Amino acid sequence: MRAPIREVFVSAQGEGPYVGYRQIFVRFPRCNLECKYCDTPRDWDAERKCKVELRPGTGEFVDFDNPVSEEQLLGIIKSYERIHSVSLTGGEPLLYAKFIKELKPSKFPLYLETNMTLPEGAREVKDVVKYVSGDFKLQGQCDFKGHYEKYFNDTARSFSILRHTSFRDCFCKIIVSRDVKRDEVLHAVDQIKDCITELILQPVTPVNGVEAATPKQLFELQEAAMDKVETVRIIPQTHKMWGAL
Ligand code: SF4
């Protein structure tokens, strides 16, 4: 099986509870959503090569033809050492769920970063991913084209499918901008609180005119969410602070 891949590189995880761990990042192109704060370029077409950084941190890339086979990707992953896990990111990696399912013999565990709106994809990969960083998108954060209720329900279903088990850690990340409504966050948390090990409130990195939440807002939200989930942490995007990819 093959899938288009934008790039493969090594960096430190910049978000959530595994911040700082060294990971291989496999970035897939395309997404089924258009979030206002998205910082992933959408300018990708099938003619583009997959750029692979063979030596971590060098910024020196070699090109692989797209689409890439799972054997090729497993070979690239195997060439690295001292890696915590393989971050499958995007875009939206669950658009390529059947391909991800074939990565099961990976040398390092798989860490899925997903918007959680594709439950059928979640079902495909549930037995192969060891870590799930799942977003819960709020109304107003993306263009849901009038179908937010469907996305909301699909997100709850995906969390149920990829829930925390003895094999898999699943946590939820909610992006917090200044216009986020407290009750909406708490309603979302109510749907998934039994599926996750912890909730991460991630203050938005201001982009495209989206404003950062204030510290007061974040503390109030954390306080309220702790009534529902035992561990609620406020963790910003750290890789942006030190200029990492
Ligand atoms: S889900 Fe992620 S990749 Fe997709 S548009 Fe939103 S922020 Fe960007």
Provide tags for this entry.
single chain, 245 residues, alpha/beta, TIM Barrel, two-stranded antiparallel sheet, binds iron/sulfur cluster
How would you explain this protein's 3D organization?
The protein is of the alpha/beta class. The chain has one domain (2-241): TIM Barrel (Alpha-Beta Barrel), CATH 3.20.20. Helix content is 23%, strand content 23%. The chain has helices at residues 70-78, 97-101, 119-125, 148-161, 182-192, 215-225; strands at 2-3, 7-12, 22-27, 50-53, 61-64, 68-69, 85-89, 110-114, 129-135, 169-176, 199-203, 232-234. The strands form 2 sheets. Strands 5-4-2-3-7-8-9-10-11-12 form a 10-stranded mixed beta sheet, with helices on one face. A two-stranded antiparallel ribbon has the order 1-6. Helix 3 packs parallel to helix 4. It is globular, with a radius of gyration of 17 Å. Bound molecules: iron/sulfur cluster (SF4). Iron/sulfur cluster (SF4) is lined by residues 31, 33-35, 38, 40, 90-92, 115.
